[in-house]
Design a protein that fits this description.
about 350 residues, mainly alpha, 17 helices
Length: about 350
């Protein structure tokens, strides 16, 4: 029997997820009951690190301090209440109310994790430690002229998203012996899954990031096409920028194909797990298609998929989640395959 404290924790996490991420609030309930609480908790922990990274008023030194502090909190080597109070006092007024509330509730988020298994807690702690250190590093390296190379972009994507894919895979494997038989292959593909989602966000948010003084695009990719990211404001009108953007779209699509392979390694009977992954992947693929068709966009809203597309993704996934061949066909039809692979 589920006790009242557990039900309160579930309601608390569900409410926080609705406020800080409509996407995860939509997908997490699809998971098997045994995974919902720990995955929801893991996401809220990651969202606290994101709040630190995104705060426009914090210096890179402050962000490093609070990222390190929070990693210690998650590892139970520092006090959650002290962290929450000290961060809340310096958060910028522009930080969304829901994220500020989440920071204030850090102690409760941490306390919920006390009920998880040792393996679950270790998966969450490792994810937060790598994410916190990586985000702090890239905030120190932030440059409006972009990252030096595609390798740097890959590493940034790993620190902020690929490591989340690894965390989820460890949780999935702990949940299911059948999934655990494929652990090595799943772990190899998990990073690509995270990179698909993060590269999609980077490409969609180019102009919003630039207004915040950041650019996560790789200089070397655009230089090959004769475009200098120092002149990024000219990008929408420059065919050379469009060519560099197209190359990155294909990189993201190559990772998306690996993400589909990841989904297909999950047992067909685990439709909830598959839907959890497919909805995120489907929305990323559709976003990449919109960016590809409108490379001269100037605002993330220009390439944001519609609610109708989200509903269609959910509906199609529910019907096709257990059918591997159909999923491959739908992936190609939705524009998921990189151009070099089309027709193969």
């Amino acid at each position: 029997m589920v006790n009242s404290d557990s039900r309160d924790d579930e309601r608390f996490q569900a409410a926080m997820l609705r406020d800080v991420s409509r996407t995860f609030a939509l997908t997490i309930p699809e998971l098997p009951a045994a995974l919902r609480e720990v995955v929801g908790n893991g996401y809220l922990l990651c969202r606290i690190v994101d709040t630190i990274e995104d705060d426009p008023g914090l210096s890179s030194t402050q962000k490093r301090h609070f990222c390190n502090f929070f990693a210690e909190v998650v590892a139970r080597r520092a006090e959650a209440a002290e962290f929450a109070q000290s961060l809340d006092e310096v958060l910028a007024p522009t930080v969304p109310k829901a994220e500020r509330l989440l920071v204030r509730e850090t102690a409760r988020v941490i306390a919920i994790g006390d009920g998880f298994t040792t393996a679950q807690r270790q998966a969450l702690e490792r994810c937060v430690a790598i994410m916190a250190d990586g985000m702090a590093e890239f905030q120190e390296r932030k440059d409006p002229a972009g990252l030096p190379t595609l390798v740097d972009m890959d590493r940034y994507c790993y620190c902020v998203a690929g490591v989340v894919g690894e965390m989820l895979t460890r949780l999935f494997c702990e949940y299911s012996p059948q999934i655990r038989r494929h652990e090595d292959r799943l772990m190899a593909l998990a990073v690509s899954f995270g990179q698909t989602l993060q590269m999609t966000n980077i490409l969609k948010d180019i102009w919003e990031d630039r207004r915040r003084g950041a650019c996560w695009l790789p200089h070397d990719v655009f230089a090959r096409h004769g475009f200098d990211l120092a002149d990024l404001e000219r990008g929408p009108d420059d065919p050379r920028f469009h060519e560099g953007l197209g190359e990155l779209i294909d990189v993201a699509r190559t990772h998306a194909r690996c993400a589909l392979d990841y989904v297909l390694l999950l047992p067909r009977a685990e439709t909830g797990l598959r839907n959890f992954c497919l909805w995120a992947l489907g929305m990323a693929v559709l976003t990449l298609r919109k960016i590809d068709k409108r490379r001269d966009f100037r605002n993330g809203q220009d390439v944001k998929i519609t609610r109708r597309s989200v509903k269609a993704t959910v509906a199609v996934s529910r019907v096709s989640a257990g059918h591997d061949a159909l999923l491959r066909v739908l992936f190609t039809l939705s524009g998921g395959a990189p151009r070099a692979s089309r027709g193969v």
